[in-house]
Amino acid sequence: MASLRKFFALAMNIKDRLRELDRLQHKIAPTQPQPSFPASQLNAPDLFTDIFKPRAGDFPHLASAKTNAGENLQQLAAEGCFLLEHCTALDATIGEFTLHELPNLSPELVAIAGKDERLATLDLRRTLFIDTETTGLAGGAGTVAFLVGVGYLSDEAFVVRQYFMRDFHEEAALLHLLAQQVDAASGLVSFNGRAFDVPLLNSRYIINRRRAAFDGMPHFDLLHAARRVWRETVASCTLGELERSILGIQRHDDVPGALVPQIYFDYLHSGKLDGLREVFLHNRQDILSMAALVIRLCQMIKEPLSSTTLRERHRLGTLFRKVRQLERSAQVFENLVERERSAQNLETFAELALCYKRLQRHDEACRLWMQAIEKLAFHPVPYIELAKHYEHRLKDFDQAIALTERALRAIQLREELKSDGESEIYRLDLEKRWQRLKRKRAVSSNQ
């Protein structure tokens, strides 16, 4: 019965994909048939240029944009692959963010967001934002990147170049042109590129007997940075979900990523351009969204106490601690403890106390745990932390024993209100601690 349900679920999934492909085939020109010609005849760039010419409504969330499609198209097409270039003015807004902020972002902010000290040398004016569209989503030696989009800053615009191979024999030319641009860059920004895009492209370079172009480059992978800040805030940390929930971007009629390989294979088989335009737009939007995401992350790291939710603030405080910016971490958690009643929980107290301990501010850590006892009367952790302070720093075994006994009573009251396995773990630790303190006090008394 279970296998029968799986069969019907798979059949419905295939039907949904076929419906989506049918929608894309009729989307580009509903009143006229789409031009069709064999891939071998697509050497004239103007055929593609006409298809990819900007149209009203391509990017409804992109305001004040100047778009230039197909610049230097003839020259670059003669070198063996097809290229589109789009220039978006820096006064353009992507969702809720303006591109002119991007060139002025400090590399130190990027290094904190990426939790990688090597990114402190990253010059965003010479950095490539990279995204690929491939013949498969699983990777492997048989997977090819047929479209590689790279975004970068010029003097007055954010430029997106899209390298496209019209057939498999153009891969060497695509990789050659891409390598020239990568060699001039100081680093990379991607979304899950560390696990997918970069290993895939490096493998294609090796298969084509070329040096892997991306080896050793500083690489800011936005997926990991987004998870550190928003994994408990949004439903998932996919780029699409972050666009909707964080950046204020709503895509319209976007091609699903799972259908991209089939659209390309249909083009190779029949020469039809149906759906390819949507693939190019999808790729370009991914790159623009990455630029907006970098801006948002750096804004939050620069000013963590403004325009952030409580949960975002908490995650930023933890991030500061992990990159050893303890003063900034303490500042964030002090704000949460002192001003936000809903944030006065064990996790926040523990984070701030840890910062104090590492900063050698032990008296402040002690006062904080005393405050936590008032807020969290039935939780044993504040008593345990204070007992450690009196045992190891002040050598006051009587006070440490008294706090341990209070922690045991707190566990008893906690169990009367709610029985859980966590209390039993604390009880075993406290009983061992109590026995050890008794022995230490006896030894101290005999000296």
CATH superfamily of the largest domain: Ribonuclease H-like superfamily/Ribonuclease H
Instruction: Give the quaternary arrangement of the chains.
Output: single chain
Which class of secondary structure composition applies to the elements?
Answer: alpha+beta
Report the CATH topology name of the largest domain. Answer: Nucleotidyltransferase, domain 5
* Whole-number count of domains: 2
Strands in their spatial order, largest beta sheet: 2-7-6-5-8-9
Question: How many helical stretches?
Answer: 17
Extended strand count: 9
Mean pLDDT, to the nearest integer, reads: 84
CATH class of the largest domain: Alpha Beta
Q: How would you describe this structure to a colleague?
A:
- There is one protein chain.
- By secondary structure, the protein is an alpha+beta fold.
- The longest helix has 27 residues.
- Helix 4 packs across helix 10, helix 11 runs antiparallel to helix 12 and helix 14 packs antiparallel against helix 15.
- About 9% of the residues have low confidence.
